[in-house]
Write a structure and sequence with these properties.
With about 260 residues, the chain is an alpha/beta fold. About 40% of the residues lie in helices and about 25% in strands. The protein binds adenosine-5'-triphosphate (ATP). It holds the Pfam family ABC_tran.
């Protein structure tokens, strides 16, 4: 079993302007309770979602509180150690793409982590197939659409085989085909026993793919529960300034 635990985390970018207030939450794999399910983090713009996942990845340091991976503080781990354990797909793919061919980009993270050639070839083939990238492997990512670039970053991080994978808004700019590939990837990662966490604004995608939902509001966790209970709670959804997924609205009309 693997565990990621956040204890009493507070954070501010600037003095006297606290962004996260005493946040505690945990994620794990391999148990049958809801902390092991693929988890969506939802909430209005500015709620603190991106800040929370940056802290999880060790990109910024908390003012107070702890982030523990298997009972070890991530603050004691090197950047390389964290990279091996925690993969993160940023909101904007342009922040994450460095190479001038898709295949070099897919290989890049694995090379940095010292994967052997056979494994690199195997993983590139797997993610290229999963995200329909075989026809563009020799292309420059910047000659491709934003949606394809985003899928390339998801594929690159998956290829590195991290134990924990965090997505920041993976569905931005995606059409139905892209969303289907992402759904398949999330299911697969979960079946492989990875901890899957994603920030999302697309409530339909949340409802279809994430059995556990964390609602953030003004730097706090308002609720952490199953998607059914979260979206059934109209007062909660309203307080957090969110929408109810269409499927839930229809089910309620039928009642
Ligand atoms: N680098 C920064 N410096 C100062 N303030 C920041 C910085 N990044 C974010 N903030 C502020 O922190 C607060 C939380 O931002 P954050 O990006 O975590 O929210 P979010 O819930 O991810 O929003 P969004 O859905 O728009 O991405 C906001 O008020 C934002 O203006």
């Amino acid at each position: 079993m693997m565990q990621l635990e956040i204890k009493n985390l507070s954070f501010s970018y600037e003095k006297n302007q606290q962004i996260l207030h005493n946040v505690s939450v945990s994620f794990q794999n391999g148990s049958d309770d809801q902390t092991s399910l693929p988890t969506a983090i939802i909430g209005q713009n500015g709620a603190g979602k991106s800040t929370l996942v940056k802290l999880l990845k060790g990109l910024i340091k908390p003012d107070q509180g702890q982030i523990l991976q298997d009972n070890q503080a991530i603050s004691t781990q090197s950047v390389a150690e964290i990279a091996r354990q925690i993969g993160m797909v940023f909101q904007n793919p342009n922040d994450q793409i460095f190479k001038n061919t898709v295949s070099a980009e897919l290989e890049f993270g694995m090379k940095n982590l010292g994967f052997d050639k056979m494994k690199i070839r195997e993983n590139v083939a797997f993610v290229a197939e999963l995200f329909s990238l075989n026809d563009v492997l020799d292309k420059n990512p910047y000659d491709l659409s934003l949606s394809t670039r985003k899928l390339i970053t998801v594929a690159s991080v998956m290829a590195m085989d991290p134990k924990i994978i965090i997505f920041d808004e993976p569905t931005i700019a995606q059409d139905l085909r892209g969303k289907k590939a992402l759904s398949k990837a999330i299911k697969l990662l979960s079946e492989q026993g990875k901890i899957v966490i994603s920030i999302l604004h697309d409530m339909e995608f949340v409802y279809d793919n994430f059995p556990r939902v964390i609602v953030m509001n003004e730097g706090e966790i308002l609720a952490d529960d199953t998607r059914e209970r979260i979206f059934d709670d109209e007062a909660l959804i309203k307080k957090a300034g969110l929408d109810t997924p269409v499927a839930v609205k229809i089910a309620k009309l039928k009642k």
